[in-house]
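Before the break, one more example. Copy the sequence into your notebook; we will annotate it together after we see the structure.
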Amino acid sequence: MRTIQEAIRSLDKEELAQAYARIHPRKIEPFYEEEDVDGMPCGEIKKRTREGVAELIDLVCGLETRDSEDGHHCIVFGYPYPIGKYYGENMRQELIYEDELLRRGEDAPAYSYKFTDWAEVLGWHVADTKYTQANLCEIMALVLYEMTWWGFTPEEVAEQREKTFAEIDELEDEEEVDEELAEFRTNFMRELDEYAAIDEARPLEEKLLERQYMQAENTYYSYLRGREMQEIVETLRRGRTKTP
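Here is what the structure looks like once it is written out:
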């Protein structure tokens, strides 16, 4: 398996930049440097976007990678997902641990890595499944999006990580926390009651059909995810991929 960094280096930078901006257009706002874009020509917006993402890709390709601190062999893979569920995506990417995949199969959990050091992420491996390799550009764009959730440099991500963890540590006033939770619970229950009132007015047949649709959809996409995971397992067990 190639590493994420090797996979990114193998792609056309322009195509990868376009995929990143297309899938998550809201993430490109930092490239405008606080400017008002309402009157900015579309051509200028696209130009700045391409230049900004291209700089990000150059940064990612030039970093030195390192092994995961926890010792896990990490694998990233993709699978189809319904259009419109997450921004403009029609696929998803997930991070799994090889040892958990071999032990638990399709029940292996996926992990977020928004706060993970980029040098570690770039050293992870990309699955050799047919779907992942056929859609490598889009999946690497999703990986970049996950990496840049909290910033466009490793330093920005590290700063936000420290800030977030410090805020969590400061939650020592139990009374204040209890008040915030009580307020959240009150607002949530009010919204739930409002939804229940609207739902009550819907025909029973419509609600039953919607439930069947949602169950079928979840079953279908669980199948697609599981199929990719099984292909990874089979590849590993056949010894076609030699992991470091």
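The beta strands are 74-80, 91-97, 125-126. Confidence is low (pLDDT under 50) at residues 84-88. Try to locate both features in your own notes.
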